[in-house]
């Protein structure tokens, strides 16, 4: 079974188009073959009736009795491998070439149309034998009376032959579909494999591995896409180099004003200079300070646009004690809004992590819960223990987040309401810190009802869930 994706869609669509076209062709072909065979039988009987009638009419015996008349008609109109029935205009069979069942009454469509002067046929199941037969009827003049000549021939052999042709056509169709399926899979692979290669390399680039490149001489749009991604990675590497050069350069830029400030500060601290010289020194210090402020502001703006690497100081951390400490830190802020923070768990999970960074994670989450809770609301903290993970859930009954904003709330610099202040980096940094601890963070929210934040962290291997 081909898994869902572009490959499956290509194979499925290509296969369906060919299948529907082949099915239509086979149906038309089989209908045409059946019609041809049936028409051949019908035309043969019809021509025989016409030729026999042309020969019979000039030489028929006008004054012969009914029995001789019927026998004479049977001899003239008889046809091999076909039963000939002579039927009166009332539908009663008077005699047959086989001599069987002469008491039956005919009421099929071929008989009724023959009475109207047309040569007609009827295909159906014979009530006596149960076989599929074709009946061809025509009205002829026999002496002073009119009779209907009804030829009945079995179609069993013909239908068996048609069935063999049908099975052969189905076999050919199945072989064609198998070939088409193999061809479509090959065609899909020629498209999907380059896409999978490009996707894999792009995922590595998204994780910061900009030294990887898409290899392969792809043509047309895929070649343009791979060239664009390789160019993008090259430009990012170049930008990182520019950033490193900038940091090196800015360090030198910082050293110059600091040296001036330190030198004049030491000089002025000694004293003994006239007011003009002191004023000049203070002006230089002020100027260099303004320059430092400008440089620092540029560094801060630059830092907001970069992804910083952090080193964790790992140790055993009791999550329950950590959350109790966070509750105490936010107690005063929560008390001002009348918000209660409850820790609803008796578990004492111990994990391996950086205590300060874990505190930063949950402090930010609980602080947001307090900030966006209604007055006199309740915030609950709880643990869910698994075999190898512990999930900390922070649930509030606050204003909630819309579905549109929930998808972007962990993006850098994104704020649901910019008027609330902040940089919009809190949850983005929290997400990165959780990932550094090999965990995950999920959020669920209903606008107007509240928000739940689930932080899932790994437990130390070989240790029980609670310690």
Offer a quick outline of the entry.
The protein is α+β, with helices and mostly antiparallel strands and 467 residues long. The chain has helices spanning 6-59, 66-77, 109-115, 156-206, 220-270, 275-304, 319-329, 331-337, 355-371, 403-406, 426-436; strands at 83-87, 93-96, 120-125, 132-142, 145-154, 315-318, 340-343, 350-353, 378-385, 389-395, 440-446, 450-458.
Please outline the helices and strands.
Layout: H1 6-59, H2 66-77, E1 83-87, E2 93-96, H3 109-115, E3 120-125, E4 132-142, E5 145-154, H4 156-206, H5 220-270, H6 275-304, E6 315-318, H7 319-329, H8 331-337, E7 340-343, E8 350-353, H9 355-371, E9 378-385, E10 389-395, H10 403-406, H11 426-436, E11 440-446, E12 450-458
Parallel strand pairs: 7-9
Antiparallel strand pairs: 1-2, 1-5, 3-4, 4-5, 6-8, 9-10, 10-12, 11-12
Transmembrane segments: 12-33, 165-188
Keywords: ATP-binding, Cell membrane, Kinase, Membrane, Nucleotide-binding, Phosphoprotein, Transferase, Transmembrane, Transmembrane helix, Two-component regulatory system
Domain Histidine kinase: 249-461
Description of the molecule:
- This is histidine kinase.
- It is a multi-pass membrane protein.
- Its main location: membrane.
- It is found in: Cell membrane.
- It holds the Pfam family HisKA.
- The protein is α+β, with helices and mostly antiparallel strands and 467 residues long.
- The chain folds into 4 domains: 1-59 and 156-203, no CATH class; 61-154, PAS domain (Beta-Lactamase, 2-Layer Sandwich), CATH 3.30.450.20; 220-304, Signal transduction histidine kinase, dimerisation/phosphotransfer (DHp) domain (Helix Hairpins), CATH 1.10.287.130; 315-458, Histidine kinase-like ATPase, C-terminal domain (Heat Shock Protein 90, 2-Layer Sandwich).
- The chain is 55% helix and 17% strand.
- The protein contains 11 helices and 12 strands.
- It has helices at residues 6-59, 66-77, 109-115, 156-206, 220-270, 275-304, 319-329, 331-337, 355-371, 403-406, 426-436; strands at residues 83-87, 93-96, 120-125, 132-142, 145-154, 315-318, 340-343, 350-353, 378-385, 389-395, 440-446, 450-458.
- The chain has a 5-stranded antiparallel sheet, sandwiched between helices. It has a 5-stranded mixed sheet with strand order 7-9-10-12-11, with helices on one face.
- Strand 1 and strand 2 (93-96) form a beta hairpin.
- The longest helix has 54 residues, at 6-59.
- The radius of gyration is 48 Å and the shape is elongated.
